[in-house]
Amino acid sequence: MSIASIAGRIRGESRAAQLFADDLETLRRLAWEGLYREDDVEQMLQAVREDDPLTDVAPESGPLVSRYCEMRRELRDIRAPELQPQVAALSEIFDYHAQLLHHAVALLAVAWRSERLRLQQQWVGPIGPQADRLRGVVEELDRLAKERGAARNN
After folding, report:
1. What integer best gives the mean pLDDT of the chain?
2. What secondary structure does DSSP assign to the chain, as a single string?
3. Distance CA 110, CA 27 (A)
4. Does 68 reside within a domain?
5. Which residue range is the domain that position 35 belongs to?
6. Total tally of structural domains belonging to the chain
7. Does 152 map to a domain?
């Protein structure tokens, strides 16, 4: 094996390592942002359950739904193959959060039409298992970053 081919392999491996590091950093930022914004989602869901005025809830929930959709789109930029399971999980979680909030606010807009819709509105609850799943992904990404940092220091 020639020196040039060895050097090429090393450059390729270092590029792959840098891609992984950059993608991991981006993925952690998105995951932590999703976790941070969960409190806002919970507040909006509570506002729906408590029948707050739509004129108060809708303007606050719209940007939140849009941001979760945008974060989901940003996940497409993650190319490291090792991180694709976390990318897929976050995509599902962010979509769930956006859909949950969107449909809860839509319910608030029409709940006045029937007693049955009012009952559904009262059942709007916390995010549920997807919140736990998001915390698990965040912990996993933090562990990967810590392991990567420990490996670089050795």
Report:
1. 90
2. --HHHHHHHHHHHHHHHHHHHHHHHHHHHHHHHHHHHHHHHHHHHHHHHTT--HHHHHHHHHHHHHHHHHHHHHGGG---GGGHHHHHHHHHHHHHHHHHHHHHHHHHHHGGG-HHHHHHHHT----THHHHHHHHHHHHHHHHHHHHHHHHH-
3. 37
4. yes
5. 3-145
6. 1
7. no
* 119 part of a folded domain: yes
Residue 154 included in any domain: no
Structure tokens that stand for 115 in this block: 């007693």
- Of the pLDDT bands very low, low, confident and very high (cuts 50, 70, 90), residue 90 is very high
- In tens, the pLDDT along 65-84 reads 999 999 999 999 999 999 99
